[in-house]
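Usage example:
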Amino acid sequence: MDRVILIKYGELTTKKGNRKLFIKTLYFNILKKLKDFDVNIFKDMSRMYIEFNSEDLDIILKKIGEIFGIHSFLIAYKTNSDISSIKNTIKEVLSSNIDLEDLSTFKVETKRSDKNFPIDSLKCNHVFGGYILENFPNLKVDVHKPKNLIHIEIRKDYSYVYLNEYKGLGGYPVGTLGKGMLMLSGGIDSPVAGYLAIKRGIKLDLVYFEAIPHTSLEAREKVIRLAKKLAIYGGKMRLIIVPFTKLQEAIYKNVDGNYSITIMRRMMYRIMEKLTLRFKSLVIVNGESIGQVASQTLTSMRVINNVTNMPIIRPVACFDKLEIIDISKKIGTYDISILPYEDCCTVFVPRHPIINPNLKHCEELESKFAYENLIEEILANLKVITINEEVENKYEDIL
Amino acid sequence: MVYLDYSATTPVNLEVLKSFNKVVTTYPGNANSLHELGRKSFDLMEASSLQIANLLNVKKEEVIFTSGASEANNLAIIGTILKYKNRGKHILTTKLEHSSVLETVEYLKEFGIEVEYLNILENGLVDLDDLKRKIKKTTILVSISHVNSEVGTLQDVNKIGEILKNYPTIIFHVDGTQAVGKIKVNLENIDLYSLSAHKIYGLKGVGCLIKKKHIELTPLIHGGKSQSLYRSGTPCVALYASFAKALKLALNDLEEKYQHVLKLNERIKKELETMKNIHINSNLNCIPHILNISIDGIKPETMLRAMSESEIYISTKTACSNSKDFSLSVYEVTKNLEYAKSSLRISLSYLTTDEEITYFLKVFKEKIKELSFLKGE
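Running the assembly step on the lines above writes:
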């Protein structure tokens, strides 16, 4: 029996003008995701179909469940578009998927896009429902809460019969909305912010501020591991490692302790602005959440944000910590994030960071040292790593 | 040579050895070092833990590498007692355990720990009613081997685990040394599980204790965190990686391997059953990999040496057991002292061939005939 994976598009179907671009992007995203498998992918304006080798089915389904822009997907049984072929396929589908010893209920739902098919959808429901009643004595009709919903899609060349749908991730196909840069620390919030930005179709580059030797190589590895998790959803991405040590040390030496975090965040935004221009991103994305720490009070945000006009997307700004944690667990970043390595936001933390900083005072403090030169030096010493989705058999020759 | 002592130890799989060699030479760093070389070793160690965890369906943090199953059993038992002695001092176990369990609990008696042994039914299984009867408010640990090493009795540890779920303060330890790699194991209802690499075609000197997240243990070897808080010492990443590899290979085609061994076992049994001075101690609750028999009138050591002359290697009791006069396990299962005094263990592997069994049976019969004068016939 011929089986295909049928993919129903997500929110993109409502966006008429961009539809072609969205479908094309989704098509390439799926192609990239399944590059290691022997598959054929066909697309039209309302559906995508994937032919596959049955031994790969489980892993392919898992991978499709990681792609944004898909409303739902399912395993459809392909058949010829005539009544007797469809009946035969229904019989096979039910026999191989339902325990026919058990009493159960069903409903048939037909979609007929081929209007030349001899009978209309309603009539189809009757014809095929009647066929099921005749051949499967344990199945009764229940149109309100059927245990088995039997879908029949009648198209011109082929028809499809299927039972259950899997829910897709929703969102927009990654890349359809352009590029953004995520400020990725080792914490819980920023990976979640990245995930949510990816969900809305943003193709991300990642930026990690590093202060070796004050921060450790473990901390960098932790960030790389987080990045690999994000790459499951966002595809291949660049991780830009920013050598922040000298600037951070300068802040520590020159700035009154309470303001050091505020100034540090302002410096980060200054660097981010330059990076977005250099790496051609449209927005900055970060994991700031209102009120969580001193630099994330509204006053702090305003004073810090003052250094740039670049739009800053804060996907988790209004989420509670527990809501953020829920998502981080779902996307597999939580266990990595809670590993105890310091990042540059947690070294040199003053005992009482200011929660209502004054903009003028910030500017005065910054005028005391030549940070511009340090930023130039940083930008000349960036390190860029390409991040791919986590490869599980990294130690294939050993393990 | 015909090796029929696979339950004592197994020959190392050359793929496993290859992994070991590769790691020894290419990952020289101490996994605890913070520099690049150290991180590489650490990362591989983590990947090894993860692979073992995935194969056993547990979490990566739940794998504690040890020097083998004996250490794992010691850590499980003593670690639990030290950690939870305030809850009570009562241990339940069976006389079917490996000496690393039996002697450990006996040793703990010196420190005021109370040990009780569970009844074994005629079919070789733990008497579950006796278990429920003997559980007290002060019981903190139940330790039962998944598969007995001498007779091969397979205990329903799942069911026992389910019963123990009703006693949330009791920790359930299972020695899985003889089970892993031979049968499918399910650790869902088990808190602590010991295993060893050299029983599954891995190297000697490595094993692990699976310790579920909700359990805490006091370590036996202190010295700060290395691979795990529960066992200090510079991690031998090469051993760990080789163990992960061995486990993966051992679990491949488990069902086919099992059927192969079952066929060989049935063939031997069928043949031995026709001999009137042989008693088969392993019953239907035993895994086919272990076949324990007693020969009427011939000392097991004599038979072992006689077989050894023809390069056939079997064992009496287990290599580790030290009860000098008789096999406690055989006695527990048969309740017959004569059988317990004269037991021999033939242990089979998926590597064992039909030809080997043919040769074994031929020599075995000849030797019995030669030695039968000892019975005064």
